[in-house]
Every structure is written in C-alpha cells, then in structure tokens.
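tl;dr need the bound structure. longer version: we got a ligand (flavin-adenine dinucleotide) that a collaborator sent over and nobodys looked at where it sits. i said id run it. heres the input, straight from their email, havent touched it
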Amino acid sequence: MTITRRKFLTNGMAGVGTVGLASWSLPAFAQGEIMPKSGPRVVVIGGGWGGATAAKYIRLQDPSIEVVMIEREPVFRSCPISNWVIGGLKEMGDITVSYSALKTKHGIKVVHDTVTGIDPGRQMVRVADGMISYDRLIVSPGITLLNDEIDGLDAVGRAVFPAAWSAGAETQQLREELAAMPAGGTVVLSVPFGPYRCPPGPYERTSLIADYLKKNKPGSKLIVLDSNEKIISKGKLFKAAWDAYYEGIIDYRTDNAVIKVDASTRTISTDFDDIRADVGNIIPNQRASDTVDLAHLRPDGRRWCPVNPWTYQSTIHPEIHVVGDATDATTVGKVPKSGFIANSMAKVCAAATVALINGEEPARPSMANTCYSLVSGTEGISVTAVYDWDDASGKMAAIKGAKGLSPGRFEIVAANADDWARAIWSDMLG
Ligand SMILES: Cc1cc2nc3c(=O)[nH]c(=O)nc-3n(C[C@H](O)[C@H](O)[C@H](O)COP(=O)(O)OP(=O)(O)OC[C@H]3O[C@@H](n4cnc5c(N)ncnc54)[C@H](O)[C@@H]3O)c2cc1C
C-alpha cells in the first residue's frame, strides 16, 4: 500500500481535531537562541530507549541533518535488567552506559539539561541557558508516576516506599533495603493498574525478590498487591514458576490496589487490609511524562499522547513526533510499553523524519518486540510479536504466526535476555 503525504497528515489529525489548542497559552520565552542553525535540525527530548535510538538512526540515515539530543541525566541507566540488580544478580554499573559514542561516533550534540518549555509555533524548546530551534521535534520522555492517587505517597512516603520504576537511585535503595532486612521480614510490592510501563516488569521483580529471599532471608514473605484482576502478562508462565519455586514465600493478591501508605508506621493499606512492611515497593499508576504537557501533546483527560503510527507525528502538533512509553496504544495498536517497542517506534520515526525533511514519502512501518523476564536466578520466559501496518484500522497489528510465548521457562532464555540487553544498548548508544 502507498500513502500520500496529504493522507497521512489527514490520518494524523483524525479524531482529535484541535483539542486543547484554544485553551493553551504559551509560557513567556524570554531568552534567545543559543545554538543558531545552519541547516535542517531535529531536536530530541529524552535520551532513553526511544530518544537515543531516534537520534542515532537519523544521523545514520542522513548525516546532513543536525541532531541535538537533550537529556537531563548524565548517563543512561537501563530499566530492563534493573530487576536483576534488585534481586542481587547484577550491579548498577552493569546497567549504566555512557552517551559518549553518540557524540564522538555519530556527531550528535548531546545537551545535558532539562527542557522546561516547548513553543510549537516558533518551533523552539527552552533549556536553562536559552532557546534551541528545530525543524522537527521528537519527544520520548517516558512516564510520570501518579503518586497523588495514593494517600500519603508524598515526598516522605516515596522516600520510605520507592517505586524504582526508572532505573537509578531508587533501584539501588530497594536493593540495599532487601539486603539489610532481617530474615523473617515482610516485603510488600504493589502492581499498578494497566496500562503502565513494562507489563511483565512487576512480576519479574516478584520472582527475583522471592528468589533472593528464598536463598538469603529464610522465613521471609513477599506480599504482592495487584490492582488488576490477574497477572497481566505471561500469567501462566509466572504462576507455574511461583508454584514450583516460591511456595510459602509469595502471597499474591488480585484486585488489591493500594489506596494509602503511612511512612511513620511503614503501613500499606488496601480496601481489605493494613500491612506493615519491612520493605515496601509501591509502583503507582502512570501516564505520559509531564514533559509532554509543555506542548499539550496529551489531550485533557487522557493519560497518553495520540500519534499517527505511520510516522509517530503527534495528532495535535504534526511537526512534533512522540515515541516510547508516552504514546497512546489506542492510536498505535496493541503494543506494550516496552524498551524494545520504544526502540522500534524510534526507528520508524527516524526514517519518517528523514523522509519528511527531504520532501519524500515515509515508508510503510513495521515493528517488533520481545520481552524477556527472569523467573529465578537462572531461568527466563519470553513473549514475542512482530507488527505490520493494518489498513483497516490504520494502526499497527501483530502478524499471526509471528508472535507467541516461550513454551516454558529455560536457562537459555535467561542467557538470551542478558545478550539481548547488551545488544540493544549497543544498537541505541554504541
Ligand atoms: C523494572 C523494569 C523492567 C523493564 N524491563 C524491560 C524489558 O526487559 N524489556 C523491555 O523492552 N522493556 C522493559 N522495561 C520498559 C522500558 O524501560 C521502557 O518501556 C522504556 O524505558 C521506554 O523508553 P522511553 O524512551 O519512552 O522512556 P525512557 O527510557 O524513560 O527515557 C525517557 C528519558 O527522557 C528524559 N527526560 C524526560 N523529560 C525530560 C526533560 N524535560 N528534559 C530532559 N530530559 C527529559 C528522562 O531523563 C529519560 O532519560 C522495563 C521497565 C522497568 C521499570
């Protein structure tokens, strides 16, 4: 199928119209341009799975395009494999990668700063020192945790009950709290309502914490408070492993959303129980990062950003592209919020961005995903899908016969997971 530019721009706006534009007033942009342009420029906000991939693949496809990537963190820390750190199988250093190859090998201008404003009209973003202009903007800022939905989960509550849902200081904190906990202790882990970042992530974490408790903290328990009515990814495979290995350790409870925490007594409450936790890992509900609201890319009342999945153009501002977890799967197709998908979306988006800048038609998209999860220190499970464009829905759809679960849990899948992570970090950042 071919698609004309008129058609994909029209598709991009379908169903959304100009939501929010009328009520949107721009912040004052006082400072001037700090990086004058001499040719076509793409600015990328976020140097995570989507942003770093998009930045690199634009430069690989057209080195005449200048790419400026703005990322507030000094180094990349990977969420995939961060559960392995919590379970004591890896160290933070094993999941940390430098941004230096993006600069030296690919000529990307990496700015370590926080974007505090986006002016879609003037096509500029604001950082601490002033403004940076763009021809096209790619936004891949990840998620915001909705801490406010849980009573008591303010800054004090978060310090006691970390989410560790972006790899970093909270990952290390959770690891150290588990190591310091006396044998016979109680760990509580909460699972948010979907859709959230990494559907199998909380269940992999459950497995690896249970594995650690079994080996190092006899008599300890792990209570899992799942907001959902069942395990929402690879359910049978996780359950089979938990039954085989963690009988008497994992206490898994469905329809048990956390509604309140009390940091002073270390108590976590649901509609049914008040539980005192020696270690508490509260993962709140989620939506697209606050950064998308700088350009009103998330319509009022919606949690995620609608996009045209042919190009990842925002349906609200077509000169801005959104990729990664921040995108609304109801507009993309049934894809999970995973790093692999963010990487895949970013490649489609990079190719489309290069085509648009050069006055060409973006090519038909295709995407892939494999999510690996460890169920013990040595065995893994996986789920895979390949996606193609579906004319009928105007979205991406999994290809029948090119998707499925691993038939069981295997050591080779755990080894594949380790290899996959190192290979994809190199694809994004090497
Ligand atoms: C525990 C855990 C395990 C996971 N395991 C897997 C797995 O095995 N496989 C898999 O495929 N996925 C996995 N994921 C999911 C994966 O991490 C996410 O889907 C992926 O990170 C999404 O990429 P992103 O680019 O949307 O966001 P991110 O990778 O979070 O990148 C966003 C970046 O934007 C930056 N940023 C945001 N706003 C601004 C701003 N205003 N200015 C400057 N910088 C900004 C942030 O600092 C961040 O670096 C896991 C997630 C978790 C939490």
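gonna send this back to them w/ a short note. Residues 81 and 235 are 20 Å apart (CA to CA).
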